[in-house]
Amino acid sequence: MPWNPDLVQEIADAHKHEDGALLPILHALNDRFGYVDARAVPLIADVLNLSRAEVHGVVSFYHDFREAPAGKVVVKVCRAEACQSMGAMGLIEQLCGRHGVSLGDTSAAGVTIEPVYCLGNCACAPAAMVNDRLHGRLDAERLDSIIAEAQS
Amino acid sequence: MTVTVYVPADSAAQSVGAEETAAAILKEAAARGLDLKLVRNGSRGLFWLEPLVEVMTTAGRVAYGPVMATDVPGLMDALAVAGDHPLCHGPTEDIPYLKNQERLTFARIGVIDPLALDDYEAHGGLSGLRKALIMDPETVCEEVTESGLRGRGGAGFPAGIKWKTVQGLSAPQKYVCCNADEGDSGTFADRMVMEGDPFMLIEGMIIAGLASGATEGYVYIRSEYPRAVAQMEAAAAVMEKAGWLGGSVGGSGRAFRLHVRKGAGAYICGEESSMLESLEGKRGTVRAKPPIPAIAGLFGKPTVINNVLTLASVPIILAKGASFYRDFGMGRSRGTQPFQIAGNVKRGGLVEKAFGVTLRELIEDFGGGTASGRPFRTAQLGGPLGAYVSEDMLDLPADYEALADAQAMLGHGGIVVFDETADMAEMARFAFEFCEIESCGKCTPCRIGAIRGRETVEKVLRGENVAQNIALVEDLCELMRDGSLCAMGGLTPMPVLSAIRLFPEDFDRAPRLAAE
To answer: Has the ipTM of the complex gone over 0.90?
Structure first.
């Protein structure tokens, strides 16, 4: 969704009465726009009576809040120990090679490949989350077909 | 006659095809005109058999697995009559993996429909809360203390004593916070509870509220668990509608409200004071202690903070009494622990056993050894900040003290198995790298130590001044352990030092480098 200050205002107002409202607001923006636009920071700061630095500090602290929209397909591949024990590092290398990106980047075809540290699927390793859907017992071939399906 | 079939909607089961299997069963049943009722339960925790399909018979449930969607057409005849089939494992409860467990906290998980309150009550739910409602708060705290329940998040602090501290303080507002930021690799028990039996966790939180005098509860769930967030929100709505949450819990006139909050991808927020900061809408940085959260916690108010498994153990303690629970376990580790067997293991899953079970029983008898079939090399216990153990340590009993004596820790009960291909120097490097990525940055030993540690292990990996650099790493570890504000920097030395101590051959890179 394109930048829309009125919607940011509306979302911030809807949450402002909650205790500790900043994370719920940022999540809502992230969900709605796909990222947290830097232009939203002063608006939120104003609603919550915080400094811009405080809001920016929170946005930049958490891995979830994006500064720019991700690709159409977001692949979060687990590189924590349990998945490593089942060959995750090799799987990730292959995956990045196939899409011509380094970990954390988005390919020209709109596939974002990001690291994640545990998806709670450690008995079905290696695991990845593709557009919020969890997948386990992955190999390169299965992961490719899941990504291809998500792209179509 | 209606045939009742169970297909888990647990996200791990879904990750290996449970949704497709469920859809195929419905489609096949419709094509055959079969009167079939599909129940979406949680997972039994036998993950190598997922998707595990069960069918109800007069003699209990019969299990089939792993059932992929493509298996369904060929399975349907057997499924309709609970008959024999190559994928059949007989009565679910008789599968040795399940039969040899002592399931108290996990008794209902995989059995009931997680969002059906009547199903929950029919399986013993709410009886603990009903008892707590007619007891005075001090007695509830005493009961929990008596049970010997210790914090299942990893620190192992007696839960009843924490509650009693909050109960004894007078404040205009107190809180119960459930730490559901289960970020340790190799652990998934919290996720299974929230997805498979969310009412149990809510019941535990309400009891904690009644005992401590807190009227507001927060459950802080990591964002990597979207299904757990959705289940908890749905379960809270059901409990509220039924009058168990809100202004008058069960008509008692005492209030308890629950808020479900989502983390934002920061491992450090599993540390309790960072979690509080995050709940308050701030950067998830660690607070210096004292004051402890029981005295000045969320928004500066007295706060009970417990892990999911701790709070989920409370209903049965109240329902069946402290001594029932205390009779399980050994030494000072009382009750049961949901162990999570993961990584390179043949039969990965959830094993709830009384404390005292040996690591070998868990990894070999339950787990069946490595998935790859190669020899066992090591297991990491208690997550990314826990120690690696060697094969000759596997006869250690899994309890807090025995593992601590062996320079390891139980943590949240996760066991990650590695086969002989594991490169322990690389795992030591990764431990520092993980700390570097996830450090909150507040204290120097953790923020800078992690980077210097990674760089120094990388020198070892390149074969540069190996002995001196290992000595440097050991010295750095001592500083991080003693000087860090919290367990992130304080325990990163655990995996590093255990790898150096138990697998010194992996740090001698000369042979490998010569071979390349």
So the answer is: yes
